[in-house]
Amino acid sequence: MKEFELIRQIQRETSVSYSAGFEHGVKLGIGDDAAVLEVPAGQHLVAATDTLNAGTHFPTDTSPFDIGYKCLAVNLSDLAAMGATPRWALLSLSLPQADPEWVQLFSEGFRSLAAAHNVTLVGGDTTGGPLSISLTALGSVEPGKQLTRAGAKPGDLLVVSGTIGGAAHALDRLLAGEPAIERDLLDRPQPRVKLGLSLRGHASACIDISDGLLADLGHVLKASGCGARLEIEKLPQSQELKQLADDLKWRYQLSGGDDYELLFTLPARHRAWLTNCSQQLDIELTVIGEIEKEEGIRCFRKNGSLYLPQDTGFEHFRSGQ
Ligand code: ADP
Ligand code: MG
Predict the structure, then answer these.
(1) Pocket, ligand 1, Cβ cutoff 6 A
(2) Looking at the predicted structure, is the pLDDT value of residue 315 above 60?
(3) Residue 312: what pLDDT?
């Protein structure tokens, strides 16, 4: 099979039909030297890209379906964190061999998520080499309405969606050769696109958690020039995590990665709105702390004592005082 046939197969098998009323804006898609896209009038283009390398960003036994799903999910998560509406994607595929069966499953995984979010694949590149997938997601946002990492203010609530730590726990079990549990948390993260859109005009800062809560919270604090207190016993946990000893659990929750949940800050006057938003979107939204003026992150137990996380490897962390 030639590169050209693979590209045709990808084009065929990833194509989605759109929700009623959705304008997909593709003037020229796959098949020419570049795509021509029409950004909706008065909106700005938002672009994100992420690469997944086999063995580094996903376990080598990950199914092609899940790889197709995840390469789009992690990028949609970045657009969600910006409060953008996803629209288009470009896919750079490096494959050890031209395997139509692999490509079919990969395309199914990709399409399952693309269809849910009206994303059109408009181009890419296909080469031979070690298994690696680079995806660029393009979306749009009204000028000035984007969410950023800067903007958190002392007194803002610190909020996280879903549960955290479960993906890192699932990965550790896999690497230890133990039976997979909650593997979907690792392979099928749900990009919080609707939540990101709802946060516009409410959240003061936002990021998606890909490198672990402390690391990603650190990025927000650095960009915003403030600090935070974290109530570690409030961190939302998956069913399996609840079974673990506290220290181990908190290590996954504070320093594990791959959650792809949104972490955002919210002026306290929006607290009632938050409850409403959680119900409307049917997404767990948990207040886990508060933004403070003093730089650094201070973690507290329920009884008010300070908790010093182990092995964070995290440069913005300061032991509280
Ligand atoms: P060029 O050599 O001009 O870059 P290619 O032969 O690489 O063109 O690609 C032909 C067309 O197929 C282009 O429109 C390109 O964007 C698209 N394409 C190539 N690989 C992929 C892929 N993996 N996914 C989606 N589109 C692809
Ligand atoms: Mg090319």
Answers:
(1) 7, 10, 30-33, 91, 93, 121, 123-126
(2) no
(3) 57
* 187 three-class SS: helix
Per-residue model confidence (pLDDT) at position 1: 56
d(CA 34, CA 38): 13
> What pLDDT sits at residue 318?
39
pLDDT, tens only, 203-261: 999 999 999 999 999 999 999 999 999 999 999 999 999 999 999 999 999 999 999 99
Ligand nearest, relative to CA of residue 33: 1
pTM exceeding 0.90? yes
184 Cβ neighbours under 8 A, 6+ residues apart: none
CA of residue 97 to ligand 1 center, whole Å: 17
Rounded to 10 deg, the angle between the 213-224 and 246-255 helix axes is 50
Pairing mode, if any, of strands 296-300 and 227-231?
parallel
Q: How far is the CA of 123 from the centre of ligand 2 (A)?
A: 10
What is the DSSP track for 109-159? HHHHHHHHTT-EEEEEEEEESSSEEEEEEEEEE-TT----S----TT-EEE
Kindly state the greatest CA–CA separation across the chain: 64
Do 68 and 110 form a contact (C-beta atoms < 8 A)? yes
Instruction: Please check whether residue 107 is in contact with residue 126, taking contact to mean a CB–CB distance below 8 angstroms.
Output: no
Report the SS3 class of residue 86: strand
Which two structure tokens, joined as six digits, stand for 242?
Answer: 């609840």
Hunting for tokens 């590169």 — which residue is that? 3
State the chain's mean pLDDT as an integer: 94
Torsion of CA 234, 235, 240, 245, to 10 degrees: -70
